[in-house]
UniProtKB/TrEMBL annotation:
It comes from the Bacteria. This is 2,3-dihydroxybenzoate-AMP ligase. The keyword Nucleotidyltransferase applies. Residues 33-382 form the AMP-dependent synthetase/ligase domain. It comes from Amycolatopsis endophytica. Its EC number is 2.7.7.58. The lineage of its organism: Bacteria, Bacillati, Actinomycetota, Actinomycetes, Pseudonocardiales. Residues 433-508 form the AMP-binding enzyme C-terminal domain.
């Protein structure tokens, strides 16, 4: 069933991806079923004291599917999901896959502004949140939303009789992920059962994920990295065990690693630093750990080199995007490549081009914008025709906005971004969205947000403001944004008031000069 607003692959590409075995015609619900048939009594999922075998998880997925149907949700309906790393998230996801309902995966940090936007854009008919007040707000504000579920009322969905039927088709959209890489408001990324199944299978293979893997979901499982690279879904495909962690803090995660004998975890670079320092200090038993995947933002070489001596396991750098393309350093790569590159493409059919501002390929070794096309990279955002015209080349390559260099080995090094997104330790701050929200403050005449370098986070945000009357303080602006309800990582780390903005020759705000000012204004306040 093709949903209105979905741009799929042209038939000749779809045929090729099928013929080459990337797309195997199996749904994500079917993959869980296969794992349950192979090892029904193995442990699939652990959330605190609660545990599910594969047989139990498979049965509960069927129950949730039946529950969703009983509540009136049908194949193709969108369900806005706003949940932390709890078992209900996994059950719900598989219930959706079985029922053909499409989950829209908001991040736990998102608040009403983001959720309203996502629910409206997706045309969601229901929402699920662990926050009852938030769920009520969304039901009120999004006209299409008819129902809200909270984790407390989750039992309503677990009906007595599991629904064995798989309503989805492998070519259907399985899930709508959020884009961290685009400007403006977040966009929705359609991932089909076929393409996402390949994504997670190939990721499991390249990270040696097997039935012996115990994967700790420390990052939000709603994000592509912890969901399917290989993450929760790839581990369940391989027959391993997924352990959910409420937080990625060492205080929470280290005891779980010890107790559950965790082998694999994915982290963003600021967390790698925190874990390295905490491990030296706390001396936990991390002897079961085999692999730390680091991605979402650029990991510094110095941190990369500390992973094995301090955590006692291998490092895999992952440079990926929810839009599709994933790059991994390989487990047998020389240390030099693992420490200094963000890996190479997952698939032999990932067509990666690095181009200059005029769209011409750059010579090897020179930075260029990464364009990509392939068996698990989207051909269009969901219901965003105008944005799609800018984000894709006429022959279907996705313009990532990332500036990347290619080494002779084929490994990529991420140098920065061409677009206005601040990568705050893996959390993406969409500059334009926050600027628009700040413009609504009565004391803000104009605003421009730029990133500045930060040792721990890679980048932080600085909002330059031209005031209207009495200049606002950072506390004023943070209070304003918090009242609107946005994710805390989008709040400006620094606010500076200017009389006017520096302009380029064309009269546009000169963000290069502002970026420089942001660095210098930090030095001033550090001295003060
Ligand atoms: P998201 O979809 O939230 O994962 O964001 C994808 C974007 O994060 C990419 O387009 C890159 O800009 C950035 N990114 C992801 N992984 C890395 C990495 N290992 N090094 C540098 N940037 C990264």
């Amino acid at each position: 069933m093709t949903l209105d607003g979905f741009t799929g692959w042209p038939p000749e590409f779809a045929r090729r991806y099928r013929d080459l075995g990337y797309w195997q015609g199996r749904t994500l619900g079917g993959l869980l079923h296969d794992s349950a048939r192979r090892g029904p009594d193995r442990t699939a999922l652990v959330d605190g004291e609660r545990r599910w075998t594969y047989a139990e998880l498979d049965r509960d997925a069927g129950r949730v599917a039946a529950g969703l149907r009983r509540k009136g949700l049908v194949r193709g309906d969108r369900l806005l999901v706003h949940l932390p790393n709890v078992a209900e998230f996994v059950l719900l996801l598989f219930g959706c896959f079985r029922a053909g309902v499409v989950p829209v995966l908001a991040l736990p940090a998102h608040r009403e502004t983001e959720l309203e936007h996502l629910g409206t854009l997706a045309g969601a008919v229901a929402c699920v949140s662990d926050d009852a007040a938030l769920a009520a707000t969304i039901t009120e504000r999004v006209p299409t939303v008819r129902r809200a579920f909270v984790t407390g009322s989750f039992a309503e969905l677990l009906t007595e009789n599991p629904d064995g039927e798989d309503a989805a088709d492998p070519a259907d959209i399985a899930v709508l992920l959020l884009s961290g890489g685009t400007t403006g408001l977040p966009k929705l990324i359609p991932r089909t059962h076929d393409d996402y199944a390949y994504n997670l299978r190939a990721s499991a293979e390249v990270s040696a994920t097997t039935g012996d893997t115990v994967y700790l979901a420390a990052l939000p499982a709603a994000h592509n990295f912890a969901l399917a690279c290989p993450g929760v879904l790839g581990t369940l495909w391989a027959g391993g065990t997924v352990v959910l962690s409420a937080s990625a803090d060492p205080e929470t995660a280290f005891p779980l690693i010890e107790r559950e004998r965790v082998t694999t975890v994915a982290l963003v670079p600021p967390l790698v630093l925190v874990w390295l320092d905490a491990a030296e200090f706390l001396e936990p038993d991390l002897s079961s750990l085999r692999l730390v995947q680091a991605g979402g933002a650029r990991l510094k070489e110095e941190a990369a080199r500390r992973v094995r001596p301090v955590l006692g396991c291998a490092l895999q750098q992952v440079y990926g995007m929810a839009e599709g393309l994933l790059n991994f350093t390989r487990l047998d790569d020389p240390d030099e490549l693992v420490a200094n590159t963000q890996g190479r493409p997952l698939s032999a059919d990932d067509e990666v081009l690095l181009v200059d501002e005029d769209g011409r390929p750059v010579p090897d070794g020179e930075p260029g914008e990464l364009l990509v096309r392939g068996p698990y990279t989207l051909r269009g955002y969901f219901r965003a025709p105008e944005h799609n015209r800018r984000s894709f080349t006429p022959d279907g390559f996705y313009r990532s906005g990332d500036l990347v260099r290619r080494q002779p080995s084929g490994h990529l090094v991420v140098e920065g971004r061409r677009r206005d997104v601040i990568n705050r330790g893996g959390d993406k701050v969409p500059v334009e969205e926050v600027e628009n929200l700040l413009l609504a403050h009565p004391a803000v005449h104009d605003v421009a947000i730029v990133g500045f370098p930060d040792e721990a986070m890679g980048e932080r945000s600085c909002a330059f403001v031209v005031a209207h009357g009495t200049p606002p303080t950072r506390a004023d602006l943070v209070a304003h944004l918090t009242a609107l309800g946005i994710a805390a990582f989008k709040l400006p780390d620094r606010v500076r008031v200017l009389d006017s903005f520096p302009r380029t020759g064309l009269g546009k705000v000169d963000r290069v000069v502002l970026a420089d000012l942001a660095v210098r204004s930090g030095q001033r306040s550090a001295r003060a």
